[in-house]
Design goal:
single chain, alpha/beta, Beta-Lactamase
């Protein structure tokens, strides 16, 4: 989940619709989309019976206490059928068809469509080429990296890639690194934000060669060394060092970032030392009460980050450089020959990270992969939106209010209704990858963004052999709090639940959502139906 500085959001207004598609579809692409659309299936819940009841008083009381008006909220609860082929039953409808900002719960649409269209074992390729020759262990020539948007090109993957490169008989490299990012349309890689926080990890833009989320992660801990503070970092970067000028102070750990200063300094090489160096300088104070702190920052441009990361990984694998490599953009020339095709991890691993930990840039790259695979490169938002609309039609879903800007929820324009998000959850249960999708959602009191939610409420069920559970995707922006997922009640009934709060006081709305989930866990709607 991402947290942002306040920007205006009016919950009662219709979100701004995206501009008209910027890229025309070629005839063969239209044919592919028409064939895709022609496989439509009938909705299993179109004739759902309705016995909707009122919103639980505890939810209204929580909203009132936190000064959130009822017309800033939408809630949809559907009871899922116990047998295949049955219809869902509407339990609760409060403004459920109202178009709202869903924040990160829109990731459910992105990940489900990807699992269904690409398959859980889909893998991204990162290919290496050269315009040089290998002789006596020396590769003399440039290395070209062509990416396809692997969202989990992390140090472990790069380490394996370097081992594979070494296995080709290469020991030293005399050349530079050329990065081919032609898989994406240029505008999707622009580093624009909705809150101006360009150095925050949640705002990293998509990149066909995204390495380690382009994020430096520093670990600061109290030690017994000279200044009492140790600093380490990941991922490993070549030509990079830490300049630790931090002092300890006897204060509590509140607002520790305001007491510390971070600066990135470039040191240009001299004639005697022909390599440039970067140093991360930490100064100011770190309160002694802060025992272990993680400081994540997006401080380097994409090319520099990947160049230094690649160089370090190559050296850690036992390779060396004739001279410090330089990294720049470019496309693989026709005369270049392939060296290595590296496959990343499967899509299902990325889906788990996206849904459990609400990783924005991973969601955006999964969304772009839809058009990259279905319509070819360059992938774009407009092309992925077309693929998504065709998939929805194929699955018998009609969401006229749907607005997609990047597929991650990091947007003031994205919109959907709570009822339609629930319809999506029902559809998921009918798909081949449905079980994997459900398992990817955060489990309340256990993992992901729900790890610390509903812990006290769930304790009352510890004695039960079959325990109730809530698998809920959360969403958070300034003025937006949302939930969407499945609840299995103590009686064994399964509910799809989605609820959105769009209001300046939305940050206070977590309790109202927890009250709604608690009501479902304890079978709140069931006694009334039994009478």
């Amino acid at each position: 989940m991402a947290y942002h500085k306040p920007v205006p959001l009016f919950s009662t207004s219709r979100p701004v619709v995206l501009p008209a598609f910027q890229h025309a579809i070629r005839p063969l692409q239209w044919l592919a989309l028409l064939l895709l659309c022609g496989l439509g299936s009938q909705s299993l819940w179109a004739s759902a019976t309705s016995s909707a009841i009122e919103v639980p008083p505890a939810v209204w009381q929580s909203l009132a206490k936190n000064q959130i008006p009822r017309d800033a909220v939408s809630i949809s609860v559907l009871e899922l059928p116990s047998t295949a082929g049955g219809n869902a039953r509407e339990i609760l409808d409060w403004r459920a068809k109202q178009s709202m900002n869903p924040a990160s719960t829109i990731k459910l649409l992105t990940t489900l469509a990807a699992l269904d269209l690409l398959g859980p074992q889909y893998r991204w390729n990162t290919n290496l080429y050269t315009d040089g020759q290998i002789k006596n262990g020396l590769l003399k020539g440039n290395l070209y990296l062509r990416g396809s948007g692997d969202p989990k090109l992390v140090p472990e993957e790069l380490e394996q890639m370097m081992k594979n490169l070494r296995a080709l008989g290469i020991q030293r490299i005399d050349g530079n690194l050329i990065f081919d990012r032609s898989a994406y349309s240029p505008e999707v890689m622009e580093h624009t934000t909705i809150d101006g926080e360009s150095m925050r990890a949640y705002n990293v833009p998509p990149d066909p060669l995204l390495y380690a989320f382009r994020t430096l992660s520093f670990q600061l801990s109290q030690t017994n060394n000279q200044n009492g503070i140790a600093i380490s970092y990941t991922p490993a970067l070549a030509y990079f060092k830490i300049n630790n000028r931090l002092r300890t102070s006897k204060q509590n750990c509140d607002d520790w970032q305001r007491k510390m200063q971070f600066e990135l300094i470039k040191h240009v090489g001299s004639e005697s030392k022909n390599s440039d160096q970067l140093s991360a300088q930490f100064s100011g104070e770190l309160p002694s009460a802060c025992r272990n702190i993680t400081y994540n920052v997006v401080a380097l441009d994409a090319n520099t980050f990947l160049t230094l990361g690649f160089a370090a990984a190559w050296e850690l694998a036992g390779g060396s450089w004739v001279k410090q490599p330089q990294g720049k953009n470019g496309e693989v020339p026709l005369f270049a020959r392939p060296l290595l095709e590296f496959q990343g991890g499967p899509l299902i691993h990325a889906v788990n990270d996206v849904n459990k930990f609400s990783n924005n840039v991973m969601a955006r790259q999964v969304f772009l992969t839809l058009s990259l695979e279905r319509l070819g490169k360059p992938a774009s938002i407009a092309a992925s939106d077309r693929v998504m609309q065709a998939w929805l039609k194929q699955r018998g879903l009609d969401f006229p209010e749907l607005v997609l800007e990047n597929g991650s929820g990091l947007s003031r324009n994205e919109a959907i209704s709570a009822r339609h998000l629930n319809d999506l959850l029902i559809t998921a249960r009918q798909l081949p990858s449905g079980d994997l999708f459900v398992q990817s959602l955060p489990l309340a009191g256990s993992d992901g963004t729900m790890k610390n939610r509903l812990i006290k409420q769930l304790r009352q069920f510890l004695h039960l052999k079959t325990k109730p559970e809530a698998r809920i995707k959360t969403g958070s922006l300034t003025e937006v709090r949302t939930i969407s997922g499945y609840v299995i009640s103590q009686s064994g009934k399964t509910y799809a639940v989605s609820s959105f709060i769009n209001h300046p006081n939305a940050f206070r709305g977590m309790d109202a959502h927890d009250q709604l989930l608690t009501w479902l866990l304890t079978g709140g709607p069931e006694p009334k139906q039994a009478r």
